[in-house]
Design brief:
The complex is a heterodimer.
Chain A: E1 3-7, E2 11-12, E3 18-25, E4 34-39, E5 46-51, E6 57-59, E7 67-72, E8 77-82, E9 91-97, E10 101-102, E11 106-110
Parallel strand pairs in A: 2-11
Antiparallel strand pairs in A: 1-3, 3-8, 4-5, 4-9, 5-6, 7-8, 9-10, 9-11
Chain B: E1 4-7, E2 10-13, E3 19-25, E4 33-38, E5 45-49, E6 53-54, E7 62-67, E8 70-75, E9 84-90, E10 97-98, E11 102-106
The chains are: A mainly beta, B mainly beta.
């Protein structure tokens, strides 16, 4: 069955780089897009970006300068890298297969 | 960016009530809208695709409708398991944008 699981550090220092991994199973990354969505504590959802089946990427315009999404199809993994982290980046980060299947999310706290 | 104005931000209702949640798009998004349900500590669950199509396994008391740039999610007869946050998402244009969410509570 389709599964996605996010992994990464729970705590990141301000100005540092966040690296998250989304490990998927039950579907192929070469046939499906994977999106990242985040949710600050107690707030709404925000689309972060995506990597499409052909490998092209799209990023939220407000995050574009700090964000990179890539993948390793042989390992069924999608990667999110965001640099220059600030406290406003504190959120639960979800990966999702085009919004039908979602990972459980990983809480990332930006704090010194 | 396309703004999705969602209302109300919160509401309380009684079991058996008919409940409607709205999203208004600032630009034409056609039928490129998804409604999600999210319970505390859980991932969003898609409820309605293409503005009006019920997702697999979603009870028939849920429905979606569209009138121009106004989109609605309706729960025909509220049940206790429906207490959750609800979000709309437009995927017509980048960046994809969500509404601010509606918290649905039991009166």
């Amino acid at each position: 069955q389709v599964q996605l699981k996010e992994s990464g550090p729970g705590l990141v220092q301000p100005s540092q780089t966040l690296s998250l991994t989304c490990t998927v199973s039950g579907f192929s990354l070469t046939s499906n897009s994977v999106h990242w969505v985040r949710q600050p504590p107690g707030k709404g959802l925000e689309w972060v970006g995506a990597i499409w089946s052909g490998g092209s990427t799209e990023y939220h315009s407000a995050l574009k300068s700090r964000l990179s999404i890539s993948r390793d199809t042989s390992k069924s993994q999608v990667f999110l890298k965001m640099n220059s982290l600030q406290t406003e980046d504190t959120a639960v980060y979800f990966c999702t297969k085009y919004f039908d299947y979602w990972g459980q999310g990983v809480m990332v706290t930006v704090s010194s | 960016d396309i703004q999705m104005t969602q209302s109300p931000s919160s509401m309380s209702a009684s079991l058996g009530d008919r409940v409607t949640i709205n999203c208004q798009a600032s630009q034409d998004i056609g039928k490129n809208l998804i409604w999600f349900q999210q319970k505390p500590g859980k991932s969003p669950r898609p409820m309605i695709y293409f503005a009006t199509t019920l997702a697999n396994g979603v009870p028939s008391r849920f429905s979606g409708s569209r009138s121009g740039s106004d989109y609605s999610l309706t729960i025909r007869s509220l049940e206790s398991e429906d207490m959750a946050d609800y979000h709309c998402l437009q995927y017509k244009q980048y960046p994809y944008t969500f509404g601010a969410g509606t918290k649905l509570e039991l009166k």
